[in-house]
Amino acid sequence: MDSLIQVHDLVKIYSLGEVEVQALRGVSLLVERGEFVAIMGASGSGKSTFMNILGFLDRPTSGQYLLEGINGENLSRDDLAEIRNRKIGFVFQGFNLLSRTSALENVELPLTYAGAPTSKRKEMTQKALSEVGLKGREHHHPSQLSGGEQQRVAIARALVNRPAILLADEPTGNLDTKTSEEIMGIFQRLNREMGITIIMITHEPDIASFAKRNIHFRDGSIVDDYKNLAPTIAAVGGEVK
Amino acid sequence: MTRLLASLRIALRALTVNKMRSALTMLGIIIGVSAVIAMIAVGSGAKQRIAEQIASMGSNLLIVLSGSSTSGGLRFGSGTVPTLNVDDAKAILTEIPSVKYVAPTLGGVAQVVFGNQNWSTVINGTTPEALEIRDWPLSSGRPFIQQDIDGATKVCLLGKTVADNLFGGIDPVGQVIRIKNVPFTVIGVLAPKGQSTQGQDQDDTIIVPLTTAQKRLFGMQFPGMVRVIMVQAREPEVMKDVENQINDLLRQRHHIQPKQDNDFSVRNLTEIMSTAEQSASVMSLLLGAIASISLIVGGIGIMNIMLVSVTERTREIGIRIAVGAKGRDILLQFLIESLVLSLIGGTMGIGIGVAGTLILSSFTQWPTLFSVKAILLAFLFSGSVGVFFGFYPARKASMLDPIEALHYE
To answer: Whole-angstrom Cα distance, residue B97 to residue B241?
Structure first.
């Protein structure tokens, strides 16, 4: 069976006026199903560009990227939106929830765009919310939730469509240590119990230590890639509250 | 369908978040739609009043007036000197095939007495065809017939105003009134016709047989003379031909030399009226057009506010695109938002427009007329303004780059 993610010689060049910036200089990578990968690197190392391409939010200048064998190269904007909707879940540093919209509706959002029937939407939304331990907080708006709770709503939203891969861009960047560990606990549980593949960007080694594989980026290239044989086990967040 | 409902819900929520802004944006549409409604109502009211007046006058009507004769260097105005006679009328009827009816008429003002009441009114001596030409039914009694003309009987038909003033509540039919001291039996009352285009009360009249008028009331030096001949053409298309043919016929009958002026004149009242109707149509079109401009200005207001809204919600749009919204989902969401704005504004505008017009017409006595078509049109117009002016901002939103949108501060 093919790898979940196959990246081959990925190059991304941005043209800023007359200056060309080479954000990725030939990145190749394989990620199997069920992996939990942390991508590390200084800002400007190309890790965010790499994540955008993995998430079909951006297209590479050259090289190949296949997700479950799907090549986004010749697909339209709307086709990519559909792939994101069905196969990818995003978790951002700034949570990126819709304000003035309940947790329930935030989580429901991808299902709305997938055109799922109402009854199925309700059922899947409730399930995703309970998986991140937010049962009973469905009708709260983001402004009424703590940072950790907001990030859990975002994780539920990322999970609700049962994606092939969960992409997290500095998911703990705005959270304190304890809450960060909670979020990592949730990630580890989702990865362990549901076999969800997770790729996470972070610049904190502590956070990276929760992942099973660490990849280091520098100047648009992978400089280090190793298995973390003994990941830190999160003390909290590993159980459904 | 569920997506449409979801978009509608999102749109309504977005509009309630900025209530003041939404209300002010709607105000532009409200003013535009109510102006369109009011202007169309005023315009079509005026048009309808003119149309009613035309109908009350009788259709396809030509009036031949005697006069404009020259006597020893003095020129007299139309109708002042009777130069037409009953034979002219007969000739018009028999020699011009497109003529349906003629009614030679001789009239004058006289004092009318019944019991202790008296009233000054216009007495018109004419033939039974006059009522056909003017499409004037009776509200009671019977019309006079050819025998009344032949025998110059002293019978009369009263206009409603005359009947009201002389008889009050009594039924006039069968009563005897005196016109210039000659007793006349009332045989019928004419149905009310209202005001003419000139504002005259058309019901302030008495109709008697032509021969009776000639012999008993307005004695003439020349028997058979009439002041006016009413002519009805068979259809509107032949009016102009009939007018020319009457001119030729009467010039010939009156032995008028090629360079001499006519001693009669032919007036096409229907034509005059339809000119008035046309100008009323142009007027209402103009009013509607001006009002539409304000609706378009309202649309620009929508576009403006939608552009602001798209900019403000760039991040939201980015999130939606990231989790799988397609271009058309975003387009639809913002289109529905501007459509909801404009349709709510349109509905309120219809209410305010109707109410405002009713208030206006009750103060100014202007005739107004609402038509379902005009209201529907204004509603649809406001909707299309919403779609038209909402499209650019909605399209702009749907084309946003998700990465940039997600990092928009």
So the answer is: 11
Nearest to A84 among B2, B13, B323 (CB): B323
Digit-coded pLDDT (tens) for B225-241: 888 898 988 887 888 88
Dihedral angle sign, alpha carbons of residues A102, A103, A106, A107: negative
Residue B172 CA to residue B160 CA, distance in Å, equals 10
How many of the other CB atoms lie within 10 Å of CB of B279?
13
Contact flag A77-B6 (C-beta cutoff 8 Å): no
Whether B238 maps to a domain, the answer reads: yes
Note whether B322 contacts A118, CB cutoff 8 Å: no
What size, in residues, is chain B? 409
Which ipTM value was assigned to this complex?
0.93
Residue type, B297: V
Q: Which residues in chain A have their CB less than 8 angstroms from residue B325's CB? A: 81, 113
Q: Does A157 touch chain B (CB under 8 A)?
A: yes
Q: Which residues of chain B have a CB within 8 Å of the CB of A78? A: 326-328
The contacts of residue B5 (CB under 8 Å, 6+ apart) are none
- For residues B365 and B279, state if they share a domain: yes
Residues of chain A predicted below pLDDT 70: 1, 237-241
- Cβ-contact B60, B231 below 8 angstroms: no
Query: What's the structural domain count of chain B?
Result: 2
From the list B315, B316, B325, the residue facing A113 with the nearest CB is B325
Q: Does A16 touch chain B (CB under 8 A)?
A: no
Instruction: Give the closest residue to B348 by CA, choosing from B7, B9, B42, B32.
Output: B32
B88 & B231 share domain: yes
Q: Are B228 and B99 members of one domain?
A: yes
| Same-domain status, B344 and B283 | yes
Domain parsing of chain A, residue ranges = 1-67+164-241, 97-162
Residue of B nearest to A83 (CA): B324
The CATH number of the structural domain formed by A1-67+164-241 is: 3.40.50.300
Q: Could you tell me which residues come within 8 angstroms of residue B364 by beta carbon, excluding any fewer than 6 positions away? A: none
Any domain includes B66? no
- Are B319 and A98 within 8 A, CB to CB? yes
User: Could you say which of B253, B287, B309 is where a domain stops?
Assistant: B253
Residue with tokens 């569920």: B2
Claim to verify: residue B330 and residue B360 sit in the same structural domain? yes
In a domain, B63, yes or no: no
What is the span of the domain harbouring residue B42?
2-53+275-406
Is B46 found in the same domain as B110? no
For residues A120 and A132, what is the distance between their CA atoms, to the nearest angstrom?
19
DSSP-derived 3-state class of residue B97: coil
The verdict on A126 touching B (C-beta cutoff 8 Å) is no
Residue B208 sits in the same domain as residue B303: no
Any idea which of A80-84, B133-137, B186-190 has the lowest mean pLDDT?
B133-137
For chain B, the average pLDDT equals 85
**B239 and B289 part of one domain:** no
* Cβ neighbours of B329 in A, within 8 Å: 113
B78 within a domain of the structure (yes/no): no
Tokens of A102: 């309940």
Angle at B358 between CA B357 and CA B363, to 5 degrees: 95
Asked whether residue B56 carries a pLDDT value surpassing 90, the answer given is no
The radius of gyration of chain A from alpha carbons, rounded to an integer in Å, stands at 18
Residue among A81, A115, A157 minimizing CB distance to B3: A115
